Amino acid sequence: MSTTHQTAIESAHKRIKPFIHQTPLFSSESINQLAGATLLFKCENFQKIGAFKMRGAANAILQLKGNLSIKGITTHSSGNHAQAVALAAQKAGFQAKIVMPSNAPNVKIAAVKGYGAEIELCEPTLQAREDGVEKIISEFGFAFVHPYDNWEVIYGQATCVKEIYEAETNIDYLLAPIGGGGLMAGSILSTLVYSSTTKIIGCEPTGADDAFQSWKSGKHLLQTNPNTIADGLLTSVGLINFPIIMDNVSKIFTVTDEQIISAMKITYERLKIVIEPSSAVPLAVVLANKAFFKGKKLALILTGGNVDLRQLPFQ
Amino acid sequence: MSTTHQTAIESAHKRIKPFIHQTPLFSSESINQLAGATLLFKCENFQKIGAFKMRGAANAILQLKGNLSIKGITTHSSGNHAQAVALAAQKAGFQAKIVMPSNAPNVKIAAVKGYGAEIELCEPTLQAREDGVEKIISEFGFAFVHPYDNWEVIYGQATCVKEIYEAETNIDYLLAPIGGGGLMAGSILSTLVYSSTTKIIGCEPTGADDAFQSWKSGKHLLQTNPNTIADGLLTSVGLINFPIIMDNVSKIFTVTDEQIISAMKITYERLKIVIEPSSAVPLAVVLANKAFFKGKKLALILTGGNVDLRQLPFQ
Questions:
Q1: Chain A: nearest CA to B69, how far in angstroms?
Q2: Which of A25, A43, A272, A308 to mutate to test the interface with B (most CBs of B within 10 A)?
Q3: In the 8-state DSSP scheme, what is residue B241?
Q4: Backbone torsions φ then ψ of B297, nearest 5 degrees
Q5: Residue ranges of the Tryptophan synthase beta chain-like PALP domain (chains A, B) (predicted)?
């Protein structure tokens, strides 16, 4: 099983390398002092399209190249996955049609258009989004690339953590946020292959804590009415990702929006980089649990940097 | 002359290396497309204390180590030089007393205190600041480190551009902002030594354009009533720096605050990094003069990232 994962992750990395950035690990003496631990930040905010999502989308879409039955690529998303699919489709020479909710920010719609994709606006419900994609699949023969519940997407996201272990050894804890679980599942698979002594910490906002509640109860609970500033983490964990996460996560911590905003501000101030709120969740977890992480070497994934600069939450 | 400069710059670099970061060069395909040129951004916003000022302060202060007649270090500054002197003095084992105007932001005062320096608040006038420093020199036997009109500070700043030429060759234009002129003079000296075919472009806000006016008129005009968002560039060019700049600059461009804010926003959005307004002046110059820079390879210094996050100027 692990060999299969290793082969898939390594193929993915080789496949996507020309289309992604190998993002740097940043650190800050003052954040280390504040936390009482050694923190390494994997800067996926510097990734193509500004988020790790490019890795998974590129891995899934590049494999469809040359398949003549596929006329184009479609997905539904209001966020980073939409941009990732649009750019990856463009790089692979596919047309893309992206279903976006009509309340998506204009700046995100413009970014997706900028990568050459067509936009189909729909009502802002999951049903309308799925219906929109179904129609594109049946009418135009396009292939659907799910944002997280897709093995090739998961293997693509796994390359992010592979790069961390290639650059650094002896990491005690790997911390990543959990939304749909694609990044977390990929991170777990890479950890099993490349750094099996590293423990995995899931990080969630209290306002979208379905993975935490599921982990506590042992049941796959879905997220209803999420309410958090971390707009990349609103969704429920996917079916493929769920058992991988439940079997391998060492602990899941939750943090409030106030703690997320504070960690976000520290990141802007000390690392001098732009991140979106979801990216700040792992640092918020560390700062809220200093005794637990004291003296350890931690890797934290900064998942993306796509944020509305006119509405930064700093007071 | 040039050999003397080379020796001084290389000694400076060797001296300060343990105390500074070798900052990276960032680039962005989308900014290159927008500009129609190849832009390399030297990220001094990631430098210790968040600005290039650490280089010059460290070079000046480290050389005073072991001089028993010097009882401590003093300077006056409301901004990045204050933090740089405080941290460099701490690293060199000196006490520091920094004169700061009473209207300096609390966050900057706290940062200087955080590096172990004592603060003497004074009225927000140049006279009061200079009087404050005079008193500390005569009363306590402290040495004054001028923010820009000091050869060792200039040689320290020169190491920034030296790092650019070590990483990249065939740069057509080097662009840096001009405030007191320490960074610009140092950049010129390094260019003469390491990349003599590179042309130097000075960049100023229209609201603090004393170098531009001096360059046009051939006279050393002082800055009166500066009015610009680029708060690191309010001062007049210093006496040492003035002839170096006038003799070697290829051109000086000015840009409005509106253009500076727009370039700042592009930097946050595309490079995903936090910069202060002064850092955005060179990119604003490029975007306002696309025909001039078309197809060229440019290095732009991002001077610092110390900005009040609660008051970002994005609409």
A1: 33
A2: A272
A3: H
A4: -105, 120
A5: 17-304
